């Protein structure tokens, strides 16, 4: 009897060891996924892909992993693989707003007109999602519909007052629409904050340049790039301004 009990105890101990190992593996994979998303937030999509490589082999149907792979590929400009990953998610979850956002952002890069139509439909389905409203604002700005864009950004700000992207994009939309005082008033404090991003500073530099303060625009850009690179960006602003008849 004691031999049987010892045998059962050994089996239980072995099972517990296996389960503990599985739990540790799952925790490691979850950590990899979290770290991969942080890497993408920090502008390192290739590092994210390396972290996701093992996870997708172990979890080929896992929706968060597929979403992360779609985002990483899109950030690298590999739009066709990104589209495949996002569509795979939608095949598994027809209501995945994150997959829809991913496809909409690719459309913003490649087919802005289609992005506008897609996002107009999305805000009807997800009216409480501030990021969808922000992306819709970008689509409106691409279409030259700046007043509609500003309404969309403001809606996003009401839904999430901490969503800095909506505020920054609203300031940029003001600049695109020739509302330079409003643009500077919106963007200057954002660019001066401790958590300001290069995108926010670029938006401010555009508003400064278009308002006639080229020196300030150059100084703002040089927070994130060399003088030579800043001059190239200013040249692109000049070209954009001439198209709009502003300079």
Account of the 3D structure:
This protein is mostly helical and 247 residues long. It is built from 13 helices and no strands. Helix 7 (130-142) packs antiparallel against helix 8 (146-159). The longest helix has 40 residues, at 2-41. The chain starts with a helix and ends with a helix.
State the total count of DSSP E strands.
Answer: 0
Write the H/E string, N to C: HHHHHHHHHHHHH
Structural class: mainly alpha
Major sheet, described briefly? none
The average pLDDT value, as a whole number, equals 88
What is the top-level CATH class of the largest domain? Mainly Alpha
Query: What spatial form do the alpha-carbon principal axes imply?
Result: globular
Computed over alpha carbons, the radius of gyration is 24 Å
Domain count: the total is 3
Query: Whole-Å distance between the termini?
Result: 95 Å
CATH architecture of the largest domain: Alpha Horseshoe
Proportion of beta-strand residues: under 5%
Residue share in helix: over 70%
Which consecutive residue ranges, at least 5 long each, have pLDDT under 50? 18-25
Total helical segments: 13
CATH topology of the largest domain, by name, is Serine Threonine Protein Phosphatase 5, Tetratricopeptide repeat
């Amino acid at each position: 009897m004691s031999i049987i009990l010892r045998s059962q105890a050994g089996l239980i101990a072995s099972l517990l060891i296996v389960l503990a190992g599985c739990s540790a593996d799952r925790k490691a994979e979850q950590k990899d996924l979290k770290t991969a998303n942080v890497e993408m937030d920090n502008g390192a999509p290739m590092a994210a892909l390396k972290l996701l490589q093992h996870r997708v082999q172990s979890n080929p149907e896992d929706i968060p992993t597929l979403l992360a792979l779609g985002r990483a590929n899109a950030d690298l400009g590999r739009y066709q693989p990104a589209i495949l990953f996002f569509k795979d998610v939608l095949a598994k979850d027809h209501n995945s707003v994150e997959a829809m956002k991913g496809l909409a952002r690719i459309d913003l890069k490649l087919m802005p007109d289609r992005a506008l139509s897609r996002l107009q439909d999305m805000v009807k389905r997800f009216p409480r999602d501030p990021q969808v409203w922000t992306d819709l604002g970008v689509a409106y700005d691409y279409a030259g519909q700046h007043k509609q864009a500003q309404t969309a950004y403001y809606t996003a700000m009401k839904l999430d007052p901490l969503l800095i992207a909506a505020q920054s994009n609203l300031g940029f939309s003001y600049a695109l629409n020739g509302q330079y005082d409003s643009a500077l008033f919106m963007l200057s404090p954002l660019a001066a904050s401790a958590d300001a991003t290069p995108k926010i500073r670029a938006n401010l530099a555009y508003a400064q340049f278009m308002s006639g303060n080229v020196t300030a625009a150059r100084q703002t850009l040089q927070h994130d790039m060399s003088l030579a690179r800043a001059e190239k960006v200013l040249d692109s602003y000049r070209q954009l301004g001439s198209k709009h008849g502003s300079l």
